[in-house]
Amino acid sequence: MKGEVRNPTTVWLLSFCGLYAVYWWYLVGNELKNYLGKEDLNPTMDVIFVWLCFPYVFYLPIKYGALIQEAQQRAGMANAEDQGMSFLIWMFLCNMGYKNMQDELNKVWESGGGAPATF
After folding, report:
1. Which residues contact 54 (CB under 8 A, 6 or more apart)?
2. Are 77 and 57 in contact (CB under 8 A)?
3. pLDDT at residue 99 above 80?
């Protein structure tokens, strides 16, 4: 099952509200879990860790960057690369990491190639 295509600018603007940013991480985690068929991926625990240990929020872009790369490869996209560190750096520049991550996710969801994992 592919994820929802979202407007990256809207995601970026809403990311300034901390609650939406956490909700967005949860949505993206669930979409990637379903698409990649990774039962060990637990977006609920990621969100809980963000609340309990704030520095974990700096690990999430790196973790999800690798998952986005895997989803791009599964979708048959050429030149899929792990952009986790890039996403993290962009997070410090006016939260632009959210916009960039959503852009990359939209490429996966809009691609016609590849098949999502089945359960």
Report:
1. none
2. no
3. yes
